[in-house]
Structures are given as structure tokens and as C-alpha cells.
Amino acid sequence: VSGTSSNDDNDVLISRYLDGALDASELAAFNRRIVNDPAFAARLYKVAHLHGSLRELGTVGTENLYGGSAAPADGIDVPLSVPLPTPGASEIQRPRGQRSIASAALVAAMFLIATIGVLYVVWPKNAATLAILKQGRNVWIERDGNQIPVTGETEIHAGDSIRTANNGSATLVFNNSNLKVDLEGESHLALPDVSAKPDTLDLALEKGVLSAAMEGAKPAQPIVISTPTGEVALQNTQLTIAASPTETRLDVHSGAVQLSRKSDGKSVAIAGGQYAIAGNAVEMAALPFATPAREKEEPEVAVAVAPRNVEEPKKKEEPLKPWEMNITGFRVVDAETGEPIPDLTPLFYGSVLEKKKLPKGFTVEALTSPEQVGSIVFELNGRQRVFVANKPPYTISAIKDKGFENLDLSPGMYNLRATPYTKPDGKGKPGPYMVVRFQVVRQKGQKPQGPPGIPPPKQ
Amino acid sequence: MSEESVPGREEVVRQFMKHRASLFAFALAVVRDFQFAEDILQEVAVVVCEQWEDFRPGTNFSAWARQITRNKIYSMSRATQRNIALTPEAMDCFEQAANNVGGDDAESIDALRHCLRKLGDKARQIVTLRYHDGLDCSAVAQRLQSTAPAIHMALSRIRGRLADCITSRLEKPNA
Whole-model pTM above 0.90? Predict the structure, then answer.
């Protein structure tokens, strides 16, 4: 869209068309123009979009049109000499069209929500702003009993709840602290009403997965993340919390924090590279992710695994219970050889995968305890891409005759969630899942361009 | 083994909300009446809610919803004995153009809000009378002791500048 004189002429024509001011011959020419000039048809669409958006904002009030600001002296204006509107000019009644009788209550509610969504974006913000929602997709806010779908940068107030859809995500940057929070899909994070607890910023992760990073100076007030079963006081740390009604899993990527269990008040200190689970059916202890020792034992494990695979069906072992399975970490492996890549073993939260230094093909493996579970379900960036691995090594791409299929990730940010299941094909009961967030770049120093481009599954 | 996630009804409804402004623009460009366009969109919402399972994951949601909108434009115009200004051939081309334009409604509205603050006094008067008070161009001209063609010209220039500003804002959000 450019402001050329040609566009000006087109816009006047479109403006007259939208106002119903074209006569029959002009209308016929207008139709021919749409058919013969795709750019003109696109311009009509853009102007109509602006026309509709202006009307939508204007219906609410002039504060929403101009954000309560005074007109700038050097603002956008038009060369039209007009007097100032007389007082009461805006009291003229709008012409009302005929409402469709068929407007169902459900639809009215949807429109209310959508309108509130627009209002949310444009309404002057008076309530206390706790954080800014920097990025989000398929995310909505619950505020004063309303559900407000949002995308883009949005202010988050005290008392808001943020929910993500199963393929949604959200990134929040909190005011007055160095706290950044990433919410995964199917998550629900409630922010407190500040007046209720003035000394502490208490975030309630009702369900889902939250990754938090806090670095630098000590925040002005203590920050606590609570879940249905546990509580974590944040310090300078990077961590991931996965919460369900019965369990909380805390993975600490750097720094050290304490996880408290709500049912009995028991707490455990967890350092970087460790995780712990707070739940009634598991013992709460700080356990390491993948350890280098495991790598050294790899050849022996490989020898042991081969006969075990043959014998196992005869043993009729008891199926695993959900709480007996854990994801202990991730690592990147060479797709051709299946060998782990030392620099990316384990694959930590926040790792940067530099494509230039990686083998031509690579994939990500989830390490489990025990080494064999029913199956592992991988979800990359919400549920944009789902893969089920039934046999170890549990990788996010299919096993070939030799090695694996290349994961083929384009530069971007990725969230990978791995969930163990008691039975093959992602069936049976799920165990506690683990999430890792990593970045793929062509070479270090380059920022990923735009959202991650995930190619379609190859099978 | 792999499987694609299948969006549920909620997800389809969310997609509808996300594309609502675009669908409204499409209907508005054809019927040229705010209220009638809104009525059409409400009917489209009913169809989307009822027939969400017809949407095939991986396909273009806005194109699917726009097709429903087009059908509703025809059926509701017939029912209310309104004429459609665009010929079927022009409608095809316009639909194609709308599918190609795309864009994020929420981001556009945010950018519009930013750009509206840059409007000068005169531009604000016209925008307020047209979009807040709901006057057509002739009534705006009467109110401002001007002429309808002058208001058409002024409004189209304002929209042109706003469109430029929005484009620039979306390209450089911090500008």
C-alpha cells in the first residue's frame, strides 16, 4: 500500500463505491476493473478492512479511536478547510440497519467475546499492569469473567488468567523484575490480584508447562510459582515446571531453587541439571537429568539391549505404572550414524543448535528411566508436529535401516515436549512429561528469522 | 509413525474470531452496509459453529470461512431483496484477492490504534463523524459545510495515509 496519486484516485473510487455513490455505468466499470486488475481488487479489500476496523473502533467511542491523546500538530491531516464541529455533533443518531432475527445467543456471545478482544487491545489501560504478553498464539485471557482472545503484544493485569490452547503458546515479560515466562500449550496461569498479597508476586500454574528465566538484579518482591501440588520460590534461575492436578515436575536448567510439596510441606533443594517431582505417589528427591556416565556405559547398554528385546515378550513383565516412568533428558544425535553429538548431550533448556556445525542430518532423542517404556509421544511447538516412538532409542524421527530420518528443522525457536506412556502408540497412561526449549540458527550470532518453519511429517 | 493434530470445535471457533475482521471486511466490501455485513457475519458464525467438522486441518481457514461468507451474502441478499453490486465474476476475483492479502487482524488493529493517534484535528473530525457518529459522506459534508465529493476525497486520503502508516508500523513495530 503506498500513497501514490494512483492509489489516491483508486481510493476515491473505492470510497464512493463503499458509500453507494457510483451510478450504474460507474458500477459496471468498477466491476470490470476488479476482474482485470488484481491489485485494484486487493486495494478494495484493504480499504474495506480499514473501513470495517475504523467502524468497529468508532462504535465504541472516540477514546478508542485516538487513545485519549490530543491531535499532534504535525499529524496526518487532509487539505480540506472545514470548521470545527459544533458541540453535540457526535450526538447525532447512527442509522441502524435491520438486525437479523436468526442471531443466536451463542453467536451473540461469540461476538461479545470478539468485541471485548478488540476493546482489550484498544481500551486505555488503567488497571495495574503486571506483565506484557510479548508473543502468543492461540492464547486468551480471562478477565472479569470474560474470555479475551489475544495475539500480539498485550498488557496483562493483576487478577488475569492466561490460558493456551493445545497448540498455543505465550511469552510474558514481567514488570519490576527480570522474569520472563514461556507458557506451553494447554496451560493455565493465574496472576494474582496485587492488593490481596502486596509483598509477593504469586503466580499460580493451575496446569500445563511453564518455563521461567530470571537473571540479573534481585526483583523488588519475592516471586513464587505455585501449582496444585507444589510451590517454587524463584531466584536467579532457569527452570521448567510441568503441573497437573496430581503432580508437579520441576526441571532446573541453571541456578538452584527449592521445591515444596503442599500436602506435607516437605521441600527439596534442586540444582541446575536436576529435576524433582512433587506428588503423592512419588518420592520427592533431586535427580539428575542425563549424566555423562550414561554415555560411557552406552556400548554395554547396547549389548544388553539386543537380547533383552528378544526375551522380553516371554517374561510377561508387569506393565509399568505411570509414576515409574520418567524422561531424564534429551540429546541430539547424528541421524546418519545414530551417535550422540557430545556438545549437545544433554540438550539443555536454552541450547543453541548451530546448523553449520551440526551433521547434515540430526534428530533429538529422549532419554528415559527405565530405558524402555511403552512409548514416547513427542510434541514439537505445541501440537504442530506429533511423533510417537515405540522402541528405544526414542527419537523424534523414524528409525531407518541405518540411523534415523533427518529432523530437518529450519532456524527458529522450538519447544519439544516428550511424554512417556505405559503402552505403545501413545496409549495407556501418561507419565510426567519433560520440556526442552532450544533454538536453531544457521550460525552463531544470527537470530532466527520469524516463526519456526516446521516441515510436514514425512510419513 | 506420525499423526497430525485435529482441531476441535473450540479451535475452529478461535480461528473464526481471529479472522473475524477479515471476513467482516469481505462482507462489507460486497454489501456496503455495516449492519447488514454484521448480520451476515453472525450467520457465518452459526454455520462455522455447526459445520466445524467440515474444515479440513492443514487447509486455509480464512478461505474456507470466506466461502461460507460468500454463500451467506447471496442467500441473505436474496432473502432481504437486496442487490449485490459485484457481478459473480468480480466476486470471484475479489475473493481471490482477499485470499492473497492475508495478514494478522489483531496486529493490524493494534497498528491502526497507533496510527489513529497521529491524525490531525481535521482528519479526526471527519473520522469521528463518519465512524463514531455513523454519518454517511453526504451527512458529514452537511455537518462540516463541505461537499460530498470533498469528503469522499478527504476520507480516501485519510484511509490511504492510515494504510501507509499501518504497513510501516507492521514492518517496523517500534517506529
Answer: no
